[in-house]
């Protein structure tokens, strides 16, 4: 491609040097890197927020110094009985959910090729992955009812599954870890996760493989250790304010109250939670100028996902590894400081304090996508096969992208995101404090210090991710 | 007011996403229907299928949304007027993820799976460059709306056209006479240090020199930079005009810091609206731009002398006098570029009618008919203005708008002539075999 050289009358020594350095082989291309709403966030005093957020999380730890673990435990045990739910609608709910899944997969194969018009990618990525996670973390484990496996399973296995299915599972959470890692890779690294046809294939395969596994190993065992969304939602729901007891009573509790009595997780379960948080973190990190610059990609001219599959695969793995290393190091250091040497038990218990952080990251990172793509989803659901239907009267809804555009929206969204990140970490510190009282040292503050430092650091990281320039 | 809203919402509801969906649904139904093969042989009544290579996800999604709206509006206007060669126009949208590799896959899919007649609508240059070889190999006409110089450079192939929007070399060159005559002769350029900036770096100095002006400094800013104050001391004191083409999320910071650097006593400013496309010009931090000038392909704000064609186009696409969605005042359109989608679809229509296009077997004839086009008159089909088409380099040439930021609006103060943007062809696609 022939570049016309700058005129030879050009003065200023800077210029020729620049041109020589740049060479001449570059194709002239256009960048339409949108000034975008991150541009408005860049104008906000985000540094003050980051400092304030770090201070708030650190201060909450200091305040806890004066609060006995018994008080936290008392708060965690607070329950407000609401009702008694004797009806078990799980089979019906799951069958309806399965039917919906079949329709969505069919829509993925045969409906619109536009990922913003086909309901499958919108339901999977926006309503399910973003929306259901938030609902689960806030209110409770809806997925236990609406997962698309339980109903079909009970149709084939009329009896409750054999108790043998609950025998100790020697692989722990390994199947769930592998499946979630695959899911995260597909979401974050694979070039076309929104493509309706390819997504339909992946969803259908995922359902079939896990249904087969449930038939082989039993529904309860596989949904506890193997099917990664059952595992993920069950863990996240420990944060929620509703609790359903085994005898069917519905009770209200404080956020995180259920985590206080949570059983320690095996190491594989700990790794699963760290993987979940690490993947959402990488979703934010992989778009930053910092990461793109590190992997040698011009953020203003992002070459597309297919050009960064290897670095992003490695980056995703590195993010999870780094977060895991930091977590285990913090727990180990805490045990050293408190003189309680059982760092494995501490790690298996304290990891529950990661849950509010994971939910906060989820909420803040996907808020904009939820607000806009959620509208597309509602419209698409009214006409899943692009046949001109209007099942729910939403097909002609105007999609208001302006909702998240401009300086005012950026200010509101940033404050919501910052509140979620800081609130999530403060809750994490409080929950860790409560859980620490179950450790051998009885919750010595010194032993909690390193993990608190990690949480302060993760607050800073989370707010930085939301305020730094992004390009992909 | 109420009745106006009713009208606009009728338009909106009639044309946007849904119209395409219905069209697509019809074809999906056909595919599933048993008689599909026989039906598809009835070429004369079947729709003309245009494959829309859309940036629905990825870095181009913000632009892609308005390219989609404009495309659907043009499709509705064409179909309401009887379609193409008496056949309805159907748009089939495939997302390329703003990814060149997927772009090539999408072209392949259009040619072999959807069997569209042509491929159309790509904006991002790297996707165009990545997809063009596939279009050439599959011999499917590929009409892009990208603004890049890559088509006109004749480095792509005979099947790639850019008939609806001018290229950046022409745009830059067109603005030079006005800059030299009206804002100053000593120009300092500030541009991002990559290909987009290099177009400006390379094309502006000779164009200014021809007008008796000169570029006295070029300041290349690393793309990952997010603070700019440290570069401003490099701006020579005798600078009369700062020509700025920064892009990306840090643009607002750039403007704000430039304002803090100069205060009220600044040189003249000239920029390309690419920097602030789809961004409200009244956003906080942009006050410093008041009184400065921008290139615009098509004006964002309605102008007093807008042609009837321009007014009809704006109404059909659904943008108000401020260039925002009529349904959503905060959703600022990509007005400077998206008109190219509208005009390109009308060029495809014209070329198909000229060639008596019947189906994929006539693609060669369609290429030749497109190459034979020479000019487009301003009007409902070409609302941005009159155009001259060079069939040898597959590139259209047209007028450019120079707009001044005044009272929170962009007011067009000058329209360049088509001749301002003409340059010597760099090659000839028509010598390549079909």
Describe the overall structure.
The complex is a heterodimer of chains A (472) and B (434). Chain A is mainly α. Chain A has 19 helices and 3 strands. Chain A has one domain. Helix content of chain A is 62%, strand content 3%. A 3-stranded antiparallel β-sheet of chain A has the order 1-3-2, with no helix packed on it. In chain A, 50% of the residues are buried. The N terminus of chain A is likely disordered. Chain B is α/β, with parallel strands linked by helices. In chain B, 38% of the residues lie in helices and 18% in strands. In chain B, helix 4 packs across helix 11 and helix 11 crosses helix 12.
| Distance separating the two termini of chain A | 27 Å
Can you count the beta strands of chain A? 3
Spatial strand arrangement across the major sheet of chain A:
1-3-2
**What best-fitting shape of chain A do the alpha-carbon axes yield?**
globular
* SSE topology string of chain B: HHHEHEHEHEEHEHEEHEEHEEHHEEEEE
Instruction: Output the radius of gyration of chain B.
Output: 22 Å
The low-confidence parts of chain A are 1-34
Break the fold down into its secondary structure elements and pairings.
The complex is a heterodimer of chains A (472) and B (434).
Chain A: H1 14-22, H2 38-43, H3 46-64, H4 69-77, E1 80-84, H5 90-110, H6 119-138, H7 143-146, H8 150-156, H9 174-188, H10 196-217, H11 219-225, H12 228-237, E2 242-244, E3 249-252, H13 267-285, H14 289-294, H15 309-338, H16 343-350, H17 354-381, H18 406-436, H19 445-467
Antiparallel strand pairs in A: 1-3, 2-3
Helix pairs in contact in A: 3-18, 3-19, 4-18, 5-6, 5-8, 5-10, 6-12, 6-17, 9-13, 10-11, 13-15, 13-17, 15-16, 15-19, 17-18, 18-19
Chain B: H1 2-15, H2 17-32, H3 36-40, E1 48-54, H4 61-80, E2 89-95, H5 100-114, E3 118-120, H6 125-138, E4 142-143, E5 160-161, H7 168-182, E6 186-192, H8 195-209, E7 214-221, E8 241-244, H9 251-262, E9 268-272, E10 293-296, H10 308-317, E11 324-325, E12 328-332, H11 335-355, H12 363-371, E13 375-376, E14 387-390, E15 395-398, E16 401-406, E17 409-415
Parallel strand pairs in B: 1-2, 1-3, 3-4, 4-5, 6-7, 6-8, 8-9, 9-10
Antiparallel strand pairs in B: 10-16, 11-12, 13-14, 14-15, 16-17
């Amino acid at each position: 491609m022939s570049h016309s050289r700058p005129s030879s009358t050009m003065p200023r020594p800077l210029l020729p040097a620049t041109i020589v350095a740049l060479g001449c082989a570059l194709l002239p291309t256009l960048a339409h890197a949108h000034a975008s709403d991150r541009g408005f966030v860049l104008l906000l005093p985000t540094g003050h927020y980051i400092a304030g957020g770090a201070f708030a999380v650190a201060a909450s730890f200091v305040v806890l110094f004066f609060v006995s673990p018994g008080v936290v435990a008392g708060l965690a045990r607070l329950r407000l009985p609401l009702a008694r739910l004797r009806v078990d609608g799980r089979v019906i709910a799951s069958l309806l959910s399965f039917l919906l899944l079949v329709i969505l997969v069919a829509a993925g194969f045969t409906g619109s090729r536009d990922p913003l018009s086909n309901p499958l990618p919108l339901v999977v990525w926006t309503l399910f992955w973003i929306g259901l996670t938030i609902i689960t973390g806030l209110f409770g484990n809806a997925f236990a009812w609406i997962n698309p496996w339980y109903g079909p399973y009970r149709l084939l296995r009329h009896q409750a599954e054999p108790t043998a299915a609950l025998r100790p599972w020697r692989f722990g959470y390994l199947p769930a870890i592998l499946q979630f890692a695959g899911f995260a890779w597909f979401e974050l690294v694979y070039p076309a996760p929104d493509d309706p046809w390819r997504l339909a294939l992946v969803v259908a395969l995922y359902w079939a493989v896990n249904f087969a596994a449930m038939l082989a190993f039993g529904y309860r065992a596989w949904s506890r250790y193997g099917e990664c969304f059952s595992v993920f939602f069950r863990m996240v729901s420990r944060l929620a304010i509703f609790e359903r007891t085994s005898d069917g009573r519905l009770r209200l509790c404080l956020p995180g109250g259920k985590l206080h009595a949570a059983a320690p997780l095996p190491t594989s379960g700990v790794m699963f939670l760290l993987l979940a948080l690490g993947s959402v973190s990488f979703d934010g990190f992989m778009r930053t100028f910092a990461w793109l610059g590190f992997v040698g990609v011009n953020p203003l001219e992002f070459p597309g996902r297919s050009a960064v599959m290897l670095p992003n695969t490695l980056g995703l793995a590195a993010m999870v590894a780094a977060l895991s290393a930091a977590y285990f190091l913090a727990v180990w250091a805490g045990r050293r400081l408190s003189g309680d040497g059982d760092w494995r038990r501490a790690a298996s218990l304290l990891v529950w304090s990661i849950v509010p952080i994971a939910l906060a990251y989820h909420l803040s990172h996907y808020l904009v996508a939820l607000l806009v793509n959620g509208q597309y989803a509602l419209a698409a659901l009214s006409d899943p096969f692009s046949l001109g239907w209007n099942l729910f009267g939403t097909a002609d809804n105007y999609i208001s992208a302006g909702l998240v555009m401009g300086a005012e929206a950026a200010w509101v969204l940033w404050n919501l995101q910052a509140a979620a990140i800081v609130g999530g970490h403060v809750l994490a510190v409080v929950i860790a404090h409560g859980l620490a009282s179950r450790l051998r040292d009885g919750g010595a503050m010194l032993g909690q210090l390193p993990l608190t430092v990690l949480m302060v650091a993760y607050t800073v990281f989370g707010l930085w991710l939301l305020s730094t320039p992004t390009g992909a | 007011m109420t009745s106006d809203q009713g009208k606009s919402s009728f338009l909106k509801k009639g044309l946007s996403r849904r119209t395409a969906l219905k069209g697509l649904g019809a074809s999906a139904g056909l595919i599933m229907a048993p008689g599909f093969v026989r039906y598809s042989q009835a070429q004369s009544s079947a729709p003309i299928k245009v494959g829309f290579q859309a940036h629905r996800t990825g870095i181009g999604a913000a632009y892609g949304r308005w390219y989609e709206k404009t495309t659907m509006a043009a499709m509705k206007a064409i179909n309401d007027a009887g379609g193409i060669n008496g056949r309805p126009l159907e748009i089939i949208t495939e997302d390329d993820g703003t990814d060149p590799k997927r772009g090539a896959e999408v072209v392949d899919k259009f040619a072999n799976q959807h069997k569209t007649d042509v491929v159309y609508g790509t904006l991002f240059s790297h996707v165009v460059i990545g997809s063009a070889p596939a279009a050439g190999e599959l011999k499917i006409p590929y009409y892009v709306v990208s603004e890049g110089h890559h088509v006109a450079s004749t480095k792509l192939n005979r099947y790639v056209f850019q008939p609806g929007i001018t290229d950046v070399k022409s745009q830059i060159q067109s603005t030079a006479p006005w800059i030299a005559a009206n804002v100053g002769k000593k120009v300092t350029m500030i541009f991002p240090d990559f290909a987009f900036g290099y177009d400006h770096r390379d094309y502006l100095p000779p164009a200014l020199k021809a007008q008796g002006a000169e570029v006295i400094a070029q300041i290349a800013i690393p793309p990952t930079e997010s603070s700019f104050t440290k570069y401003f001391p490099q701006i020579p004191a005798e600078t009369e005009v700062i020509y700025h083409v920064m892009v990306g999320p840090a643009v607002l910071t750039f403007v704000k810091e430039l304002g803090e650097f100069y205060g009220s006593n600044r040189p003249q400013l000239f920029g390309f609206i690419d920097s602030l496309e789809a961004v409200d010009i009244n956003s906080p931090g942009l006050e410093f731009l008041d009184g400065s000038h921008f290139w615009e392909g098509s004006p964002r704000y309605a102008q007093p002398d807008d042609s009837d064609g321009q007014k009809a186009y704006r109404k059909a696409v659904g943008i108000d006098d401020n260039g925002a969605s009529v349904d959503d005042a905060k959703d600022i359109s990509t007005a400077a570029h998206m008109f190219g989608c509208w005009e390109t679809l009308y060029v495809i229509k014209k070329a198909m009618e000229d060639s008596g296009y019947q189906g994929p077997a006539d693609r060669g004839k369609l290429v030749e008919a497109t190459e034979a086009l020479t000019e487009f008159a301003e009007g409902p089909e070409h609302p941005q203005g009159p155009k001259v088409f060079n069939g040898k380099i597959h590139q259209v040439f047209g007028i450019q708008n120079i707009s001044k930021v005044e009272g929170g609006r962009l007011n067009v103060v000058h329209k360049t002539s088509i001749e301002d943007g003409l340059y010597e062809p760099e090659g000839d696609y028509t010598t390549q075999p079909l």
